[in-house]
Predict the 3D structure of the following.
Amino acid sequence: MTYAAARARSPVPEVLLDLDRVSVAYGQSPVLKEISLQIREGEKVALVGPSGAGKTTLLHKLYQLRSQDTSFIHQHFALVPQLSAFHNIYIGRLDSKPLLYNLLNLLKPQKAELERIGPILEKLGLSEKIFERVGALSGGQQQRVAVGRAMYRGGRMLLADEPVSSIDVHQGEAIIQMIMDAEPTVICSLHSVDFALRYAQRIIGLR
């Protein structure tokens, strides 16, 4: 079979997100005007642009369209400071567990969940912080916990809003690679154009 014939027979990846001339406002102020955009399954996409260009607004709009099977890394972490790293990561699947099981894990983390969450924290270099209150962690450590929560939640797609802004460059490279490998489809806003060029397959610029 020729290369052209093989390509013709291969299935086209499914369109997961489709915006057709969509405008989005933040309060009363228009931020995105008539955005047209498609994201297909398997794409690794970076959003780049200056502060205020609408990267966060676009990510939130995309999340609204597929929140049922998408995990989200918030720019400002969205953690519960009074709870431990374990519990903040466990929250990622709170909606998929029975109430009694959730209460049980709040009182005493169960072995099955420790076996799922422990390796995630190990990858993030936070094994020793598993039961430490998140409010006592540094900004970079809190950001890694937020990344861990999204990895634990899983899903068909992962959206990340400046996920390494509080992490040093060396650690940031490893975390970005983890994020890109976490799910088949990833959309990540990045301040670093260098990271975008190195780790994404497709770059979308906003201005």
Summary: The beta strands are 15-26, 29-40, 44-48, 70-73, 157-161, 185-189, 202-205. Residues 101 and 110 are 9 Å apart (CA to CA). The longest helix spans residues 139-153. The radius of gyration is 18 Å.
